[in-house]
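Exercise 3.2. Students should predict the tertiary structure of the chain below and write it as structure tokens, then compare their answer with the key that follows.

Predict this chain's 3D structure.
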Amino acid sequence: MMLSFIYVFALTYGFTVMNSLAYDPIMSRHCVDLAQASYSSISELDSWTCKTCDQDVELDYVVEENGVRALQGYDSYSDSLFIAFRGSVNIQNWIDNIQISKISPYNDTSIEVSKGFYKAYNSIKPELFDNLPSLVDKYNTRNLLITGHSLGAAITTLISYDIMTIFPTYNLLYIFTFGSPRVGNPAFSTSFNNYSKSITHYRVTHYYDIVPHVPEEFLGYEHVSNEIWYDEENTDFIICNDTLEEDDNCSNSCAPTHCTSTSDHLDYLNITMGSGN
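Answer key:
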């Protein structure tokens, strides 16, 4: 893969990355650790002893409904309240059963999102928003960091859109998703991109990961912008040009015949994603 502006990343992680004034791979690594922590067992979460349980983080809530799980608490690294969403515990079964139908849950009925992803988000949404005022009072901040992997990445996108459009009293600073499927139609992506212009928002993809290619574009789905595409070894990345449409030089370059890897989906920034890790 031909990359320009390559420099040596923090020796702690041994990355070589493409230079950017905005994309911070250290913050990205911090967020992928949070996303992976959400897969941990309840006993590991209670003691905050999982492999990616960062000691800069205070965990206050584990919210779980109908198989959807989120962690909520305070992240001193970013001085933000955080929400980290877990992906499906059975990746292959989830991929095989993704619901492709769309709904229009917003005032603008031209904006459509996946019915299945929105249903999963809606099952956990009330408790998440009920917890936020207590966290604001406890940590004296309205800053928010939201992250997630796989299905959790889709829910990250949906709750971020709600916060940007319905709950502007919260200061959404960071949105990092890893291995996200497409969430909505082009109208949704355009609206999301417009609202998130002043937010540090990145959609990280890994090589031939299958999940960023579902649901398919021909079904009326389109990704939100700011893709960062990592190579197979998670050592180099490309900052994609996807402001107006998906960049065919990034993850979309391997579609439709080569983007079939579930192993790439379970490996982000050299962190093994999923339960039991």
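Discussion points: The chain has a mean pLDDT of 91. The longest helix spans residues 115-139.
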